[in-house]
Amino acid sequence: MTGQPYRLPAGGMIDRRRPVNFSFNGRRLTGFSGDTLASALLANGVHLVGRSFKYHRPRGILSAGTEEPNALVQLESGNRSVPNLKATRIELYEGLTATSVNCWPGVRFDAGALIDAAHRLVPAGFYYKTFMWPRGGWHFYERWIRRMAGMGRAPTGPDPDRYERMNAHCDVLVVGAGPAGMAAAQAAGRSGARVILADERSQPGGSLLNMAANGSEIEPDWSSGVAAELDSMKNVRVLSRTTVTGYFDHNFVIALEQVTDHLGSNAPVHLPRQRLWRIRAGRVVLATGALERPMVFANNDRPGVMLAGAARAYANRFSVLPGRRAVVVTNNDSAYEAALELHAHGMAVAAILDHRGLVDGNAVRGAREAGLDVLPGHAIVDTGGRRRVRAAAVAKIDHDGTLAGPTRTLACDLILMSGGWSPAVHLFSQSGGRLRYDAALAAFLPDHPRQSVRCAGAINGAAETTSCMREGRSAGLDEEPAPEASSTSPKPPVQRQVFARYRAGEARSFVDFQNDVTAADITLAAREGYESVEHLKRYTTLGMGTDQGKTGNVPGLAILAGTLGSPVPAVGTTTFRPPYEPVTFGAIAGRDIGALADPVRQTPMHAWHEKAGAVFEDVGQWKRPFYYPRPGENKRTAVARESLAVRNAVGIMDVTTLGKILICGPDSVEFLNRVYTNAWDSLAVGRCRYGLMLGEDGMVLDDGVTANLSPNRLLMTTTTGNAARVLSWLEDWLQTEWPDLDVYLTSLTEQFATIALAGPGARQVLAGLVDDIDVAPAAFPFMAWRAGRVAGLPARVFRISYSGEVAYEISVPAGHGMDLWMAVLQQRSGYEVTPFGTEAMHVLRAEKGYPMIGQETDGTVTPLDLGMQWILSSKKDFLGRRSLRRSAMLDPSRKRLVGLRTEDPEAVVPEGAQILPTPPSGPPETMIGHVTSSYWSATLRRSIALALVMGGRERESHTVHIPLDHGTLRAEICDPRFYDPEGIRLRG
Amino acid sequence: MLLIPCPWCGHRDESEFTCGGEAHIQRPADPAALDDADWADYVFMRTNPKGRHRERWCHSHGCGRWFNVERHTLTHDIVAVYRMGETPPDHGEADGT
C-alpha cells in the first residue's frame, strides 16, 4: 500500500522499490525515487500547492517543467532554505521538506485571499495610481504591499553550502538532450569535435521521456543507445541537471549545474551543491524544444487546470494520473495525442473542445475512433470549484470567439489545455538572433542568427520526432538540413486562440499566472495607452515573474494585438534577457567569498603591526595600520599620542604600500616633463622632487616624489591607491602617443619595504643607524636622497616629508623590511620611536594644509583649486595644461581649498558636511562647499578641517554655517596651513 | 563576454583587457594654439557609432600591450585587430570615424 491514490499500477521511470518520504506543509507523504516534488504531490492527490502573488488565489500545478508559474515552494528551512523553487523541477529525496509560499496562516485558508474579493480596487498599475498620496506616502505603503505580495523568504544566515565555477571550451555546445540535441551531439561527437551536451533534466531524452513508450515513431531504446554512445566518446562531455541560463557575445554561455540538489542531506561532502559553467563554444546548437501555452478563459487558474502535455508527462514518465475525469480544450492537434494516451491509462475524457471549427486529420480521427467526444468550435467559458476544479462550463463559439450556443456544464476534476506551443527561443534571442512569427504555428521562431548558432527540433517548430532528429544531425555537423520528404502528412495549422468575446461577467481569465495578470489587465493597459509590449510588460508586470512569462507571454501578446487590432508580429515580443532560469547567488559568487573575495596585500612588517594590536585600514587591497591603540586608548587618544610623538620626538610609519615605478631610458626626463606639471630638467642625481600629475581634463590625478637615481634612471612614487592606475596611465602614453620616447617602466612596489622616520629627533635616530651616510643638514638637505647601509642593510634614504617635520623614508629590499623596522625600534639614540598609523599621518599633513589625493581631490579639482599655481611650469607643455586655461577653469566661483576653524574648538565637523554662507533657513539652501578632511589636532589642541568652498581664500575670515543632524556649527574660513606655514621645521 | 584576439597573445577573454575608447585620436602638437572648442573636442568628444568602430584595447592582465580593435558596436563582431602604429586594414572606412 503506497498511499498514493493517483499512482498508476505500473510503468513510468520511477523506482517503485525505493519509496521516498517527504513533507509538504507539514503533511508527511510518500513518493518514489525518480519523482519530482510535483509528481509526488499529484500521486498523493495534492493539487493545491500555493497562493497567487497578488490575489492570493488557490493555485495548483500547471506544468511539468521549467515553465511552471504556479507551484512555487520554499524548500527546506534554516540557512539552506531556498525560496520560490518550482515543484516541477525539484527532484524528490528522502526527508525533503517543502512549504507553500505567499500564504498565511496556510495554503488551505489564507487570510490574504480577502484581497481577491476586492480585486476591482487593485487593477494593473494600481500602485502607480493609488498609493501616491500624500507625498512620500509610498514609502509607508510599500512595506505593506511588499509583505502582502511577497513570495518565499530568503535565509538570513550565511549559506552553508559550497559552490564552484568551471571554465570550459568546446567546438560544439549542444543545449537540450531531446531527440534533436542527442542527434546533434552524436553527429558532432562522431566527427571528432569536442562536444558539450547540457540538459536541465536528470537524464537525456527530452520529450521522449514524456511520451508513451509505444507512442513515438522511433525505436524505444534509441535514446538510451545514443546516451551510451555519447558516454563512451572521450571528446563528448554530457552535463545533466545543467540549465543553460545565459547566452552572451562571442558564443560565451553560462550554465548552472545542480550537482547535489537532488540528494538533499545525503549529498557527499566532496561535491559542491551547484557549479556555474562558463563555456566558450565554437558553435552552439540550440535544441531547447518548445513550451506549451495555456488557454485563456474565465477562472482558468483553479488547481486542476493543467497543460495537456504536462498531464501526459506525469502519466508516462512518473506513472501518475493527475485526475480521474478530464475536459480537454485545445486549438491544435497535440492535445489529442495527450488525451488518447491518458485515456489509455484509464482517465475518463469528458470531451475534447477544439477552438477550431473544422477539424480533421489523424489525431482527431484517432480520438473519435477511441470513442472520445470531440466538439469542434467549442470553448470553455468558465470553471467551477474552489480549491480544485470541479466543472467546466462549455459552449459553442464562432470563428471569432462569439458565443454561438447555450452553455452547459461538464463535471470533471481536471482541465487539460493546449494553446499551441511556443518554441523555447530564449537563448537564441539572447544571442542576438532575430525572430519571425509563423502564423500556422501561431508562434515566434528563430530566424536570422547573429552568432555561430544553429537551431534544431521543436525550437524550429518541428513536430515529428524524426524531423527533430534529422535537424539535430545536420546542426551537429554544421550543415543545412536536407529538405523534408513530403510524404509525411503535414499537421493541420494551429488556430490562434480566440479571446475575450466570451469572457463571462466578472470572472477573471489569467494570462500570467505567477504575477496574476489577467486578459482584462492587458486590455486595460492598452486602453490607457500602454500599447508597446515593453510598456505593457512594465505596467501590468506580464512576464516579470521568476518564470519570465514562459507560458503566458505569447497569449498576452496575442490579446494586446487583438485589442489594438494589429497583427501579432507587429506587436512583437519583449526582449529576452538572461537568465533563462533563476541562478542562485551562491553559484554566481562561487568560491569568491569571505577571505577569497578579494586578494589581501600585506607589507613585510604586517606581522609586527598585528602583534602590536594595530587597527587596520583598507587602502585598495592593502592592509595599512590605521593607529596602534594602547590599553585604555580609543581612536582619538591613540591618534593624538601618535601625532604628538611625531611633533615632539620621533615616529615611524610603514609606507611600503606607496607605489614605486622605476623609469629608465634616455628620454626619461623628457617623459616626466610631459606627465608632470613642473619641470624636471634640472633635477640632479641624488635629488628628489615633488610632482603633480593631471589628466588631459586638467584635473589632479596623482602626486608623489620622484628621485633621480642615476643618469637615465628615476624612481617615481605614487599614492598607495593609485599605483596601478598611474602605471597604466604612463604606459598608455608611452605605447600609444609617444612611441618615439625611449623609456621603460617597471613596477617596484613590492620589491622594496619602506619606512618613514619623522620628527625633530629623526636625524639623531638615523645617525645611530648609518655609518656611510653623512646626515648633517648641509650634507643631506631636504629633498635629497642617499644610498648606503642602514642598520647594516643596503638602503636608499630619501629626505622627504609629509608631516612637516624633519623626515626620512628608508627603502630596503622587501625581504629586509622587518629587520629594518626592528632595528629602528631598538636603536639607542635616546629617543623613543613611536609607530604611527595612517590616521596620525592624515592629521599631520592636514595641519600642514597638504591636500591628499582622493580626499581633497575627486576628479573635479584642478591644481588651481588647490592653490598650487607654484607647481605649474610656464615654460613647457604638460598633460592637462591647456585645460587649465579653459574659461570654466578660470571661473572665480570654483570651489577652492580653504581651512576651517570651528567656533567651538572641540567640535570636529563630519567630513562631507555641506557649507552654507548664512544660517540655514529651510530648503532649498545655498550651498557653497563641503568639508573634505576634518580632525582633532592634538598639536593645536583644537579641531581643524579642510574644505572646498566657492571663491576659496577670498572668503577668508568669513563665518560659514555647517548644518548637521543636531544643530548648526559655525566656522571661520582660514589659511589651510594651520601649522608652521613657512616650513621651517621640515627644513631644519 | 567578448573573445579578443590580442596580437601578441592570441584569443583571450574580455575580462583580461581594458578598453581605452576610440582609437586614432591624436594629441594636438601645440595645445596652446587651440581655442577652447577645439581643445574640448580633443579631450571630451568621441564618436559613438552604431556600426564599425576603431578603439584601443590594452591586454592589461596579460602582456600589458595596447593595440587597436575594429569592432561592430551592434553585433560585437571583431572586424580587425592591428598593433599600435600600424595602418588600419583597408576594407573601407569604419563608420563614424
Please describe what this structure looks like.
The complex is a heterodimer of chains A (988) and B (97). With 988 residues, chain A is an alpha+beta fold. Chain A has 7 domains: 1-158, 2Fe-2S iron-sulphur cluster binding domain, sarcosine oxidase, alpha subunit, N-terminal domain (Ubiquitin-like (UB roll), Roll); 161-292 and 420-482 and 580-597, FAD/NAD(P)-binding domain; 295-418, FAD/NAD(P)-binding domain (3-Layer(bba) Sandwich), CATH 3.50.50.60; 501-566, Arc Repressor Mutant, subunit A (Orthogonal Bundle), CATH 1.10.10; 606-657 and 751-844, 2-Layer Sandwich (Gyrase A, domain 2), CATH 3.30.1360.120; 659-747, Alpha-Beta Plaits, CATH 3.30.70.1400; 891-987, Aminomethyltransferase beta-barrel domains (Elongation Factor Tu (Ef-tu), domain 3), CATH 2.40.30. Chain A contains 24 helices and 47 strands. In chain A, the strands form 12 sheets. In chain A, strands 8, 9, 10, 11, 12, 13 and 26 form a 7-stranded mixed sheet that branches. Chain A has a 6-stranded mixed sheet with strand order 38-39-40-37-31-41. By secondary structure, chain B is mainly beta. Chain B has one domain (3-83): Folate-binding fold (2-Layer Sandwich). In chain B, 9% of the residues lie in helices and 34% in strands. The longest helix of chain B has 9 residues, at 36-44. The radius of gyration of chain B is 14 Å and the shape is globular. At the A-B interface, α20 of A face α1 of B.
